[in-house]
Amino acid sequence: MKKLLAPLLLVLFSQCKEKAAPPAPVYPIPHERQVAWQELEFYGFVHFNMNTFSDREWGFGDEKPEQFNPTALDARQWARIAKEAGMKGLIITAKHHDGFVLWPSAYTEHSVKNSPWRDGKGDLIQEFVDACREYGLKVGIYYSPWDRNHPDYGKPEYISYMRNQLTELLTNYGEIFEVWFDGANGGTGWYGGANEERKVDKLTYYDWENTHALVRELQPNAMLFSDAGPDVRWVGNEHGFAYETTWSNLMRDSVYAGMPEYSEKWASGQENGTHWVPAESDVSIRPGWYYHAYEDHKVKTLPQLMEIFYKSIGRNSSLLINFPVDTRGLIHENDEEAILKMAAKIKEDFQTNLAIEAAISSSADRGYGYEASRVIDGDYETYWTLSDGTGPKANLELDFGKEVSFNRLLLQEYTPLGQRVKAFTLEAEINGSWEKIASGTTVGYKRILRFPDVSTQKIRIAFEDGKDIPLISELGIYYAPKLLLPPLIEREKSGKLTLLSPDEGLEIRYSLDGSEPSELYTNPLEIQEASTLKVISIDPKTGENSDMLQKELEIAKAKWKTEDEKAIDENPSSYATLSSSKIQVNLGEAVTLTGFTYFPMQARYPSGHFTEFAFRISQDGKNWTEVASGEFANVVNSPIEQEIRFDAIPAKWIELEAIKTADGNPATLAEIGVLTR
Questions:
Q1: Burial class of residue 659 (count of CB atoms within 10 Å of its CB; 0-12, 13-18, 19+)
Q2: Which residues are in the F5/8 type C domain (predicted)?
Q3: Tens-place pLDDT, residues 433-480
Q4: What would the CATH number be for the domain defined by 561-675?
Q5: What is the DSSP string of 213-248?
Q6: CA–CA separation, 507 vs 509, rounded Å?
């Protein structure tokens, strides 16, 4: 009986305690729909429309409905991949700038209803909606205000057309969680055959106040996206990165969709912003937003995707990753593999919150209901805070009871009462003294800091500055296993070789003679001769290592000279345009060649790819001997480095000529190289 009495008295005592009143909000604060949207954090874009079949990013508007004809379209595949990736919703390009629409709109013939797909009886928006709902995903709609096909664009009549189509989309397909308006609008277009440039006043032409009111009437819970919101704003770049300091507050009345200076002045938000307009970071999993076969080898790597995750969701932003669905109507296998690797790594990084097992205390609190323990209870609706008038400075201290290792800190503010924190630091007790480990500025809905591994028993989070007392809803301490991938290899024209670790705290081992990599890499290497490089990454804490990467390094290009140095700068992102369809290179010395390499232009809008070539050598730069000719058969769809071999021959000069380019434009190349082994 005595054993039961103490817990019973404790329960009765706690029930008698009265929870302190919550603090007053710090304005601006979010609307309920914004709170619900922020909790989604991660969702997907589907760019699939006429551009997929015209192989463009922005269609001109003169495309024909007959061009739209996917061979194996499966919206359920899109939804399945998004669900497996941890996404909470999908947004589809219902109408892009070219004006073609993915549903049988009653207001245009430029529609799937006049395409061969599904014999003209298809409704892709309905298929998309059904697939999303089957997999428990929210449904979003992208609608371009610009229409390069419509004859009335630029006139008042077009606004009625746009609102009629929005009414169809927002009444016929159930609940929509986000309506995405692109800021790109006005310019050249087909415009029903006019083939002219039409400029509009982006601030006034669309009468956004009444257009937004229409969306509000039809979909009261939908978030409205544009540069200016009004509900969620563009992050200001297409890299998927928010900012070290990211406010959800925005001087909204000073911003409009498509304003030229938006990215520089407004995209990161403002501490004194008048409205709550949180940021959305958008990025494509490939360089382009629409599918292009020539980008199949350019899908973002796992390190790149994780960098995007930490610099978007980890910086008070949502993350919108785009899938350029291919001409089959499927998410490409390379894209699926990449996004699922990302999902697995996120799960691994945040598998165990070490803070849950720690004893937690604070320098002060508001009283019952707002104690420090609220930040580790797993409930976003509860939070730790201070008494009114005590200011923004306070500490949270965690004692793990034993030494633990970690490298991630996660914080969340209770944003329904406003964004407050302006500066905080993470400290660890090392040998009896507190040492600074990491620091941050804004927190917002979620902030994640990454730092090298720390081992300690006690840590302290010090909130140093803010707009008012802090309201911290959740706190997480994690150990993210190292990203055990081979190092990245960078080489300069001089021969300088740099090996880049895929994660902090890893060792790099290498060899240059083809043996097992054993040399510890500490500083860049000078490699002048042809060598066989083998590299691995090693986690010194576990002893585990990555797969080995082998790369054949050729002679350095330090002595090489040519008319356009971009062709020999060892930078695949730059490129040379050849005025005479050929490039000549002085190698600076006699070299015995066994072949050459051609790296096609890698720009977002490639042109001038060599399809037929001739390769010649010379001893004096005047008299030339052709040693190879032929074609690069699939260079347009697969613009990777091309390698041509021939019998060994000495040369001081080389010449590569484009006999024919894929599009008839002047020949281009990112890099020319030689083979000597």
A1: middle
A2: 343-480, 515-677
A3: 999 999 999 999 999 999 999 999 999 999 999 999 999 999 999 999
A4: 2.60.120.260
A5: HHHHHH-TTPEEEETT-SSEEE-SSSS----SS--S
A6: 7
Asked if the domains 33-347 and 354-478 are classified in one and the same CATH topology, the answer is: no
Distance CA 506, CA 153 (A): 56
Omega before 230 within 30 of 0, i.e. cis: yes
Q: Which CATH class for the 354-478 domain?
A: mainly beta
Question: Cα–Cα distance between 629 and 657 in angstroms, integer?
Answer: 9
Q: What does the pLDDT look like over 637-651, one tens digit per residue?
A: 789 899 999 999 999
DSSP 457-514: EEEEEEEEEESSS--EEEEEEE-PPP---PPEEEE-TT-EEEEE-SSTT-EEEEESBS
Backbone angles phi, psi at 623, to 5 degrees: -100, 120
The Cα 566–Cα 393 span in angstroms is 53
CA dist., res. 485 & res. 664, Å (int): 40
The secondary structure of residue 117, as a DSSP letter, is G
Count how many Cα atoms sit within 13 Å of the Cα of residue 131 in the half-sphere of its side chain.
Answer: 22
629-632 contact pairs (CB < 8 A, 24+): 629/659, 632/598, 632/600
User: DSSP labels for 14-68?
Assistant: HHHSPPPPPPPP-SS---HHHHHHHTT-EEEEEE-SHHHHHT-SS--S---GGG-
For residue 120, which amino acid is it? G
157-168 residues labelled b (16+ CB within 10 A) or e (exposed): ebbebbbebbeb
Query: Which CATH number does 33-347 carry?
Result: 3.20.20.80
CATH code that applies to domain 488-553? 2.60.40
Q: Both tokens of residue 117?
A: 């797909």
4 class by beta-carbon count within 10 Å (0-12 exposed, 13-18 middle, 19+ buried) = exposed
Q: Which two tokens stand for residue 616?
A: 């010649």
Instruction: State which H helix or E strand residue 308 sits in.
Output: helix 302-312
Give the Cα separation of 433 and 456 in Å (integer).
11
Count helices and strands (H / E) in the chain: 10, 33
Q: Which residues contact 96 (CB under 8 A, 6 or more apart)?
A: 47, 49, 50, 51, 58, 59, 142, 144
375 vs 135: CA distance, rounded Å:
32
Domain ranges in the chain?
33-347, 354-478, 488-553, 561-675
State how beta strands 496-500 and 447-466 pair: unpaired
Helix or strand (DSSP H, E) at 668: strand 668-669
Is the link from the previous residue into 28 a cis peptide, with omega within 30 of 0? yes
Portion of the chain with pLDDT greater than 90, in percent: 90
Q: 325, 76 in Cβ contact below 8 A?
A: no
